[in-house]
Amino acid sequence: MVKVENKTSLVDRIAWNIVIPVAILAVVSLYSIYFAAGDDPSHMGTPFKALIMQALWYIISVIAVLFVIQFDAEQLFKLAPYAYGVGIFLLIAVLFFYNRSIAASTGAHSWFKLGPISFQPSEVMKPAFILMLARVVNEHNKKFKHTVQNDWHLLEKIVGWFLPVAVLLILQKDFGTMLVFIAIAGGVVLVSGISWKIIIPVYGFVFILGAVIIVMVTTPNGQAFLSHFFKAYQFDRIKSWLSPSTDTSKSGYQLWLSMQAIGSGQIFGNGFGKLSVYVPVRGSDMVYSVIGESFGFVGSVALILVYLYLIIQMVKIAFDTKNAFYSYISTGVIMMILFHVFENIGMSIDLLPLTGIPLPFVSQGGSALIGNMIGIGMILSMKFHHKDYMFSTAGDF
User: Fold this and answer.
1) In a domain? residue 395
2) How many CB atoms lie within 10 A of CB 256?
3) CA distance 380 to 69
4) Closest by alpha carbon to 18, among 83, 53, 70, 69?
5) Does residue 129 fall inside a structural domain?
6) Residue 391 pLDDT grade (very low, low, confident, very high; cuts 50, 70, 90)
7) What's the CA angle centered on 296, arms 292 and 302, to 5 degrees?
């Protein structure tokens, strides 16, 4: 690795093609949360308070981005095991010091709370997990050629770093968040160079297993078996997903109202700030319904296009840097954001079961926003530092 002088100006080193769509999503977030709070003050407080709190979280998140962007590829590589270790420590700590009131309402033992501030450590574990997987894959591929035996060994390493996180999330009863980590690991596996002779049967097995579980949920015997691994409310969520109109007063209540709100917007929406359908916890899980009701199909699609543009730009930056380690980081961040978008919007319109996954950069809350913005910071680091170093081998530290 040879360091070279970088004469590019500071402004030119900022990836504005990443910053601008995130800024647009921030505006959408503040709009959605302000009006959602007016529709649901018992959960979110006054609109002004909800707006100020989200703005403060954004300020903290921007500071986190400015901090992360200072780290180049070599420093991120060295930081990975420490970040992973801190994340594991927090996931263990929350098992003992979780907030009891949040656990009673959500069923998950995954939140710290200090005064009015609540924090979910699994959210900041996501970028730490991405860093660790990128380091593991990068180190393995430098040392070993891609043979079936070596590829199985790499897959074992990835699973080995995933399992502690999975076990801790299971103990926290947070299955939805564990799905995000599965998506991250799955994405990194796809770009790791592992042979398709391994990937196809492994992914096929996972797909079949998921389909079998869904079928078992619909039968009494299947539910009896799965009750050892899942809670009753998780069964109810899958049932309401498969048939949302059969139970609109209990588990399917929130979903049914979200669909009504989005449907009421029709093509062009009801207008700026005009929300007439009450949707519980609208500022976080069901924030997409605010866009659907206000701006209709056109606004909803426009929001999806902003996410699509953001993801495409992240892919382009990863290709431009020509650094293997950065490419694994980029893949992990893209999968994290993409899964959040797919799952949140999907559950809002009944394409997917309810999981409590927030919409990136838009949903109310600080810990998810900070975790996603740290991921953005790592992407911005690629453009910020990619001319500082010349690598004889991509990702060679």
Assistant:
1) no
2) 18
3) 6
4) 69
5) yes
6) very low
7) 85
Task: For the full predicted model, state whether its pTM sits above 0.90.
Answer: no
**Alpha-carbon gap, residue 17 to 30, rounded angstroms:** 21
| For the ranges 112-126, 198-212, 380-394, the one whose mean pLDDT is highest | 198-212
The boundaries of the domain holding residue 339 are 2-390
List CB contacts of 224: < 8 A, sequence separation 6 or more: none
Nearest to 53 by CA among 101, 102, 115, 124: 115
End-to-end Cα, the chain, rounded Å? 7
pLDDT band of 247, cuts 50, 70, 90: low
Block residue for tokens 């838009």 = 362
Residue count (the chain): 397
Do the domain assignments include residue 396? no
Count of domains observed in the chain = 1
pLDDT tens-digit readout, 146-182: 899 999 999 999 999 999 999 999 888 888 899 999 9
CA diameter of the chain: 68
Quick check: is 238 in a domain? yes
- pLDDT higher than 70, residue 67: yes
What is the C-alpha to C-alpha distance for residues 225 and 395, in angstroms, rounded to an integer?
Answer: 47
| DSSP state, residue 189 | H
Answer whether 174's CB lies under 8 Å from 108's CB: yes
pLDDT digits (tens, 9 = 90+) for 100-159: 777 776 677 888 877 777 889 999 999 999 999 999 999 999 999 989 999 999 999 999
Q: Please tell me the distance from the alpha carbon of residue 356 to that of residue 112, in angstroms, as a whole number.
A: 17
The dihedral through the CA atoms of 338, 51, 378, 4 has a sign that is positive
Measured distance CA(73)–CA(14) in Å, rounded: 16
CA dihedral sign, ordered 106, 229, 363, 272? negative
